[in-house]
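Sequence only, no structure available. Ideas?
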Amino acid sequence: MRSHSIGQALRRPRYLLGGWPWRAALYLLSGVPVGLAVLVCVLLLAVVGSALTLVLIGIPLLLMLALTGIPVAALERRRLRLVDPGPLGDPHRDPGRTGPDAWVRTRLRERATWQELGFAMLLAWVLWPLEALVIGTVLAVCGGLLSTPVVMAVVTGGDEVRVLKLGLAETYPQACAAALLGAVLLAAFAYPVGVAAAARGALTRWMLSSGGSGTDARIVELGRSRMRLVDAFEAERRRIERDLHDGAQQRLVALSMTLGLARLESPAEPLGGLLATAHDEARAALVEIRELIQGIHPQVLTDRGLQAAVEDLADRSAVPVDVEFALPGRLPEHVETAVYFAVCEALANMAKHSGASRAEVNGRVEAGSLVVEVRDDGAGGADTAGGTGLQGVADRVSVLDGHLLLSSPPGGPTVFRLDVPVHALGAGAMSRTPAAP
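Reply:
I predicted one. C-alpha cells follow.
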C-alpha cells in the first residue's frame, strides 16, 4: 500500500496505470451495501423502538439506535484505507469502571458518539444513493458499449442491436467501434470516479476524525512528556535515596560505633552518661533515616522486585496482611514503583481509618493488564475525594494508562484495585527474571 492517498494519486500522470482507479471504484461500490444495511437497521430500530416504548421494551432498541454510529464508524475507518492509508484513530476513551453500564454511560457522554451517529444517518440517507448513482452510471454506459459485440453475436445472431437506446449498430465493425468507445469512456470515467472517492474519503475523515492530526500529535507528545517527567522524578528519588544510604546513613553508623566505643573507654560519670545519651540519639537518628530511605525508595524493591517489596511492607504493617502474587517476571522500574507506593497508600489508609482486622494483597496479569487488589474487612467508606492521598495515586497510575477502581461501601469491605495495561510495561518487560534474593 502506498503512503499517499487517492487525492495525491489523481494529480500524477500514471494514475490510470496503477491500482487507484480500481480501489476508488471498490470503495464507492462497497459503500452501497453498507449504506443500505445501515438504512434498514436505522428504520427497524426507530420504528420498532418507538412502537414498543410504552411497554419499556423499546427503550433498549432506541439506545441501540443512539449507539449505531459506533460500529458503522469502525467499519468506515477500515474501508477508508482503500483510498486513504493515513491512520484515523478511534476517538473513544476507556470507561473508568468495568461493566456494560459503565461503557454505555461513557459512550453516551462522548461527543464522538453523536458525531458518528450523524455520519451513520448521512450514510443511510444521502451517501450510498449518490455512490450507487456514480457507479451505476459508469456500469450502464461503459458496460452497454463494451457488451455490444457480445450482444450482437449471442442475442441477435448478427442482426442489428440498439446501443444505449441512442442508436443502432447494424454490422460487426459498428459494434466493435461502440465497444472501443466504451473502453475510452471507461478510462475517462476513472477520473470522476476517483474524484468522487476522494471527496467521499475526505468527508469520512473530517466527520470521524478525533480532532485533527495536530491535536492528536499534541496529545501524543503530552503523554510522552508525562512519562519523561515520571522517569525524571523516579531518577531523582533514586539519587536522593542513594545519597542518603551511602552518605548520611554511613556517617551515622560510624558515629554510633564511635560513641559506643567511647562509652566503653569512659564509663565514669558524668562523661559516661553524656556519651550514653549521645549514643542513644545517634541510634534514633539512624532508625529515622533508615525509615526515610525506605519511604523514598526501598532497596528491596530495586533488588528483588514488586512481590518481595510488598511482602516486606506487609511484614511491617500493624494489621496482618496476606500477600499472593502470580507474576511472570520483573516489571519496569516505573511500574513497580507506582504500584508499590499505591499499595503503601492503600495499606496506610486501611491501618488509620478502616479499623480492619485483616487485609490481603493479590497481584496477577489478567486480560492484558497487571491487576493488583488490596482488600480489607474494615468499616468501608473510603473515598478518593476524602483527602487520603488516593487521588494522587489515581493521577500517578493514569500516567501509565492505568486506572484506580475503589469499592468501599459503608460497612465494608473495601476493595482497592489497580489496572495497568501490559503495553505500558515496555518492551521485554514480562521476560525479565527476578533477581536472586
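The longest helix spans residues 213-265.
Hope that gets you unstuck.
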